[in-house]
Amino acid sequence: MSYDINLILDRLCAAFPAVLDRRAPKPLKIGLGEDLLAQAGVHPALLDLTRTQIRRALKVYTGAPAYRKAVAAGGPRYDLNGQPAGEITPDQQAFAKTPRRKPAPAAPDAAEPATPPKSSSAKPYLKLTLKRRISSDHSE
Predict the structure, then answer these.
(1) What's the angle, vertex CA 22, arms to CA 18 and CA 25, rounded to 5?
(2) Does the residue 93 lie in any domain?
(3) Domain that holds residue 63
């Protein structure tokens, strides 16, 4: 099933404006995802969302640069009602300040080893592929 995480995030922000705001995010309480999942079958905005959709939307929200900046600034964390629920630790602040890793590019062919196996007596070799051009006219 295909779905747009941004649409789900917009719904969550509309349903919980006291805590979820994409332009001025507040640090979320540790475990807020479980609170949201507990309301998945009850809250009107969450009725047709799966647990996976909610988790993925929160992952996108908490991975956004604006959210990471809010956590890096320190201060309180907030629950679904916008009430303070814990503090950001110095370790969490430091983690939020670290640059995000970019995903590694996918290997072109995982079945083929990148380097040949080395043995003590084997010399390095260059693997070549020969291609032959075939013209449409087969006359010689």
Answers:
(1) 60
(2) yes
(3) 5-97
Tens place of pLDDT per residue across the chain (140 aa):
457 888 889 988 988 898 998 888 999 999 888 888 888 778 887 888 888 888 999 999 999 899 999 999 989 999 988 899 999 998 888 888 888 776 667 655 555 555 555 555 566 666 767 677 766 665 55
| Domain count across the chain | 1
Concatenated DSSP letters for 68-103?
HHHHHT--EEE-TTS-EEEE--HHHHHHHHSPPPPP
pTM above 0.70, yes or no: no
What CATH number is given to the structural domain containing 42?
A: 1.10.1710.10
**φ/ψ (deg, to 5) at 19:** -125, -30
